[in-house]
Design goal:
Layout (H helix, E strand, L loop, with lengths): L1 H5 L4 H13 L3 E8 L11 E5 L5 H13 L3 E2 L11 E6 L4 E9 L4 H6 L1 H64 L9
Antiparallel strand pairs: 1-2, 1-5, 3-4, 4-5
Helix pairs in contact: 2-5
Length: 187
């Protein structure tokens, strides 16, 4: 899983890799990623990736897991096709999202026995999502620097292209003003 996540280039690929891995332990997965464009990283706006579309109740549990940075389990919903485990995706800097898991079986004890594995998966996904965020920020910064260089280059070229004829005209005007004897008005 770590090797595959290390090669992921998009959040969609991270979700797909996570889904494939957790399908081996009979889990449906939804990755909820906080909208990083907003200041304060609230979980009101998020992007949902996965095979299991969350209902409003599940989204509420996911928000709780995100805000409190703690795992939320809802055993009473087992067997209803509802995500019952919500793991916050805690990266070194902040919580980047939530991993919502819906077991395909009604065996809660089996799911609890997998908890260390699920926490490790959540940790790997969080680190991968943060890496993607920083890579995107670096690329955006690099594009801004390139755009600024291009702007400076264009302005420099335009300035040079305007100065050359203007310098010639100013020189010609100075020559005409300083000419002895002065030119006739009619000439």
């Amino acid at each position: 899983l770590a090797r595959d996540l290390g090669g992921a280039l998009t959040v969609g690929q991270v979700a797909e890799i996570t889904q494939l891995f957790l399908a081996t332990v009979d889990m449906d997965v939804t990755v909820l990623v906080a909208d990083t464009g907003k200041s304060g990283s609230t979980f009101q706006e998020f992007h949902e990736y996965g095979s299991h579309e969350l209902n409003d109740l599940e989204k509420g549990f996911a928000r709780t897991a995100h805000e409190r940075r703690m795992i939320v389990e809802t055993d009473s919903l087992v067997g209803m096709g509802v995500a019952i485990v919500f793991l916050p995706l805690v990266a070194p800097e902040h919580v980047v999202g939530v991993l919502a898991l819906a077991p395909r079986t009604d065996d809660v004890d089996h799911m609890r026995s997998l908890r260390p594995l699920l926490e490790a998966v959540a940790s790997l996904v969080a680190i991968t999502l943060e890496r993607l965020h920083y890579a995107e920020a670096a690329q955006s910064s690099e594009l801004q620097v390139s755009a600024e260089r291009l702007r400076i280059s264009i302005l420099s070229s335009l300035s040079h292209d305007l100065r050359t004829p203007l310098t010639s005209l100013v020189g010609l005007a100075d020559t005409l003003v300083q000419r002895q004897p002065p030119l006739d008005e009619g000439a």
